[in-house]
Specification:
alpha+beta, 5-stranded antiparallel β-sheet, globular
């Protein structure tokens, strides 16, 4: 599993251009977490508005799925048991980061 600086992750996510045919997806886990050991996040085009959205799919049953209109909202949303992605970034391990076309 790989670690990258938050600034590099932010640059990747904000500079990625989502299209109707492609999105960026990241499979990750939170180190030493039983709850967030198989989670996804990404950026894609909303099919209705055709605007880019950032999203989390944190647990397999879909009950912790969230969409955000900006990277700032996405990075600072307290969706990890009251903490944000930015706050726990040092505990994030990337399993897969790729362009899904």
């Amino acid at each position: 599993m790989k670690k990258i600086a938050f600034e590099d992750f932010e640059r990747i996510m904000t500079q990625y251009h989502a299209t109707k045919q492609g999105c960026i997806e990241v499979y990750f886990c939170v180190d030493d977490s039983f709850v967030y050991n198989s989670s996804w996040l990404g950026k894609q085009l909303d099919q209705d508005t055709e605007k880019a959205i950032y999203w989390f799919g944190l647990i397999e049953d879909g009950s912790q799925a969230y969409d955000f209109d900006s990277f700032e909202e996405f990075a600072n949303a307290k969706v990890f048991s009251g903490k944000s992605l930015k706050e726990i970034w040092e505990s994030i391990s990337l399993v897969f980061l790729g362009d899904n076309k």
